Amino acid sequence: MCCTVQRFCCACSLKTGALIIGILEAIFSAAGLIVLILIATSLAVVVSGVVDHPETSKEEAELIHGGSKVLLIVTCVMGVLVALQMVMSILLACGASNENPKLIKPWIIYSITGLTIIILLCLVMGGVAFAVNNIEAGVKFLIFCITTAVVQIYCMIVVNSYHGELTRTRTGRTYAEVPQDIALQNYST
C-alpha cells in the first residue's frame, strides 16, 4: 500500500489505532453477524412461501419470491465474510497488543479482498432492491457501501502503516530489503 500515516486520527499512536480498529471491527462484525442471521431467517420464511399476501398478483409474488431467494443467498455469503472478518479482527487486536506483525498481515490481506467482495454484494443487494421498486432500500445500500469503503480504506492505511512500523523496528529494514539480503547471504556461503 502506498499511503501511510504517522498517527491514528491525528492523536493516537498507530499501535493504539490498530488495537482500536481490531476491537471495534470484532464487535461490529459480531453485531453484523447477528443482524445477518435475523435477515436470513426472515428471507427464508418468505422464500419458503409461509407468508403469502392475498392482495399481490401472481407476477408480483413471483418477483418477490425470486428476489428474496437472491437476497437470501447474498445474505448467507455476507454472513460467512463477516464471520471471517471477525476472526481477522481478533487476530489484528492480538497482533497489535503483542506487537506481532505476523498476526496483523492476515487482516490487511483479508480486508482488501473482503472490502471488494462486500462492496460488490452490497451493490447486488442494492440493485435487487431497485429492481423490485424499493428505491429507498437501494439508496440505503449504496450509502452503506460508500461509507463502509471510506472507513475501511482509512483503517487499512492505519494498520498497514503500523505493520510497516513494526517490521522496520524489528529488522531495521523494510520487507523489500529482506529477500535481497537473504539471497546475498546464500550466495556468499
Please render the helix and strand layout as text.
Blueprint: H1 14-48, H2 58-98, H3 101-131, H4 135-171, H5 177-188
How do you describe this structure in short?
With 189 residues, the chain is mainly α. The protein has one domain. The chain contains 5 helices and no strands.
Question: Could you please describe the fold and organization of this structure?
Answer:
The structure is a single chain. The protein is built from 5 helices and no strands. The chain is mainly α and 189 residues long. It has one domain. The radius of gyration is 22 Å and the shape is elongated.
- Measured as a percent range, the helix fraction is over 70%
Main beta-sheet strand count, sense and barrel state = none
Beta-strand content: under 5%
**Shape, principal axes of CA atoms:** elongated
Instruction: Give me the count of strands.
Output: 0
Q: Would you tell me the structural class of the helices and strands?
A: mainly alpha
User: What's the pLDDT, averaged over the residues?
Assistant: 79
Oligomeric state as shown: single chain
Query: What's the SSE pattern?
Result: HHHHH
The Rg value, from CA coordinates, equals 22 Å
Total helices: the number is 5
Unreliable parts: none
Our measurement of the CA-to-CA distance between the termini, rounded to an integer number of angstroms, reads 34 Å
How many domains? The number is 1
